[in-house]
Design goal:
Quinone Oxidoreductase, Chain A, domain 1; 2 domains; about 325 residues; six-stranded parallel β-sheet; about 30% helix; Rossmann fold; single chain; seven-stranded mixed β-sheet
C-alpha cells in the first residue's frame, strides 16, 4: 500500500507519501481498498495534535472514506469481499488501503456514487445527530446555521430543510451566502458585513432562531446566543474559528435555553442502533434528492496538500474529496 503518513505533528506540510506493508484485518475488522476520501476539519486538527483524539505516531490521517472491501476478519459475517462501503474510522483514509472495525463500516445502496459516499457519513451524520436527535427539531421552527457554507454547515442546511424548518444561513462572504441559497437556505447573513443580532431580529420578527447550529465558535457565539428564541437550543458542534467561546450562563437562564453538546464520534460508538437509524433516514433522503453532498473540489490524492490549503484557508464551500482510483 501507499499512504500519506503523519510522522510528526507539524501540520499537513509534514505529511509524507510512502509505501508500507499492506495491513491485514483483525478478527473484527475489514480491509478496504480506498476509492475516495474527504477532508473534514478534524483532519486538519489531528495533524497539528489539536484534536480530541491523538493517535500514536506514525498514522495515516483521513477520517472518512469509501471503497470496496477486499479482505475480511475471521469474525465478520455481515459483510463480504467486494461490498461497496463507506467508513468512519478517524484515521486511515488518505491511503490506498485501510483496516477498519466492521462496526464502523456502512454498506452502500446499489448505485450510490463512491465520491458522494466519501463526503456523506461524517458531515451528514453529525448534522442529523445534532438537529434531529439532540435538538429535536420540529417542522416550522427556525434554524440558524453558523459557518453554513462548510462541510457540516452545508449538510445542516439541507437536513433542516428536509425536516421542514426555516433556515437562516450565516457565512463570511457574499459568494458563500449565494452558495447557501443554492443549497436551499431561506435567508442568509454575511457575518463580515452585517450585524448578526440585527439581521436575526429583522429576519425572525424579533422571535429569534429556535435552534442555533454552531460549528464555528469564536466571536459569533455570544451574539447568536443572545438572539436565540425562548426555549431555544444552542448546538455546540465545533470550533472552526479556533477560539472556544465562554458564554455567560445567565443568558441560558433568561432565555430558558439549552446548551447542547454534539460529539458525533462518541455517539456512533455509544449508540450504534441510533446511529444506524439516523443513517438509514439520511440514505432515504439522499435517494429522494433532499440531501446531496456539495462538492467544492474533487482532487487526486497526490494533491492532498492543495485540499488541506483550501480547508485551512476557509475557502471551502461544501466538501473537498480526494480520489485514489
Amino acid at each position: 500500500m501507499h499512504a500519506w503518513f503523519c510522522d510528526r505533528l507539524d501540520g499537513p506540510e509534514a505529511l509524507v507519501w510512502r509505501e508500507a506493508p499492506t495491513p491485514e484485518p483483525g478478527p473484527k475488522e475489514v480491509r478496504i481498498k480506498v476509492a475516495a476520501a474527504s477532508l473534514n476539519f478534524p483532519d486538519l486538527l489531528i495533524v497539528h495534535g489539536k484534536y480530541q483524539v491523538r493517535p500514536a505516531l506514525p498514522f495515516v490521517p483521513g477520517a472518512e472514506f469509501s471503497g470496496h472491501i477486499d479482505a475480511l476478519g475471521a469474525e465478520v459475517k455481515h459483510l463480504k469481499v467486494g461490498d461497496a462501503v463507506t467508513a468512519i474510522s478517524g484515521t486511515g483514509g488518505f491511503g490506498t488501503h485501510a483496516c477498519v472495525p466492521a462496526a464502523q463500516v456502512l454498506p452502500l445502496p446499489a448505485g450510490f456514487p463512491l465520491t458522494d459516499a466519501a463526503a456523506f457519513a461524517f458531515t451528514y451524520g453529525t448534522s442529523h445527530h445534532a438537529l434531529i436527535d439532540r435538538a429535536a427539531l420540529k417542522p416550522g421552527e427556525t434554524v440558524l446555521v453558523l459557518g453554513a457554507a462548510g462541510g457540516v454547515g452545508s449538510a445542516a442546511v439541507q437536513i433542516a430543510k428536509a425536516a421542514g424548518a426555516q433556515v437562516i444561513a450565516a457565512a463570511s462572504t457574499d459568494d458563500k451566502c449565494a452558495a447557501c441559497k443554492a443549497m436551499g437556505a431561506d435567508a442568509t447573513i454575511n457575518t463580515s458585513t452585517e450585524s448578526l443580532r440585527e439581521a436575526l431580529k429583522a429576519l425572525t420578527g424579533g422571535h429569534g432562531p429556535d435552534v442555533v447550529y454552531d460549528a464555528v465558535g469564536g466571536a459569533l457565539a455570544e451574539p447568536a446566543f443572545r438572539s436565540i428564541a425562548w426555549r431555544g437550543r444552542y448546538l455546540v458542534v465545533g470550533f472552526a474559528a479556533g477560539d472556544i467561546p465562554a458564554l455567560p450562563f445567565n443568558l441560558a437562564l433568561l432565555k430558558g435555553a439549552s446548551i447542547v453538546g454534539v460529539f458525533w464520534g462518541e455517539f456512533v460508538k455509544r449508540e450504534p442502533a441510533a446511529f444506524a437509524a439516523g443513517m438509514a433516514q439520511l440514505m432515504r433522503w439522499y435517494s429522494e434528492g433532499q440531501v446531496k453532498p456539495v462538492m467544492d473540489a474533487v482532487l487526486p490524492i497526490s494533491e492532498l496538500a492543495q485540499g488541506y490549503a483550501r480547508l485551512g484557508g476557509r475557502q471551502v464551500k461544501g466538501k473537498v474529496v480526494m480520489t485514489l482510483d
